Amino acid sequence: MQITKNTVVSIHYTLRDNEGNVLDSSIGKDPLHYIQGIGNLIPGMEEGLEGKQKGDKLDIKVSPEKGYGERNDSLTQKVPRTAFGDQEVRPGMQFQAQTSQGAQIVTITEVGLDSVTVDGNHPLAGVELNFNVEVMEVRSATSDELAHGHVHGPGGHHH
């Protein structure tokens, strides 16, 4: 069976940046299970996997536009250190902030005496992504899985 819209797909993957650094991997863990074509994965991954089948091994290069988007400098700002109260803050920490667009995850990039610089961009925004993928399983999604928008059963969500 080929990977097409509304199929449940199980993959093992390793994600690297252009320098070859491993950013994420499912190796040594359970495979990633998702439903193709409904936005469970970034667009470049879904496009790269379309038409593949169980046993296929492939490399997928995803541009920022088809991944986590380009960096948006307007999402970086300095906030008063007092906004964090007595909480310890250091670069790399992430917090959920309330914005005019709703809740957003921000990452602390710099800590000064009076201010803290936070970045609302996804950590992989602007980064070209290099996936090494092995397709482990492909099957038709059930009507319940499609209605709920996620995989059920082994390796997926259990109700």
Describe this structure as you would to a colleague.
The protein has 159 residues and is mainly β. The protein has two domains: 7-68 and 125-148, Chitinase A, domain 3 (Roll), CATH 3.10.50.40; 73-119, Thrombin, subunit H (Beta Barrel), CATH 2.40.10.330. It is 8% helix and 39% strand. The protein has helices spanning 43-49, 143-148, and strands spanning 7-16, 22-25, 32-35, 57-62, 76-80, 94-99, 102-111, 115-119, 129-140. Strands 1, 2, 3, 4 and 9 form a five-stranded antiparallel beta sheet that branches. A hairpin with a 3-residue loop joins strand 7 (102-111) and strand 8. The longest helix is centred in the N-terminal third of the chain and has 7 residues, at 43-49. The two termini are 27 Å apart.
What is the topological layout?
Layout: E1 7-16, E2 22-25, E3 32-35, H1 43-49, E4 57-62, E5 76-80, E6 94-99, E7 102-111, E8 115-119, E9 129-140, H2 143-148
Antiparallel strand pairs: 1-2, 1-3, 1-9, 4-9, 5-8, 6-7, 7-8
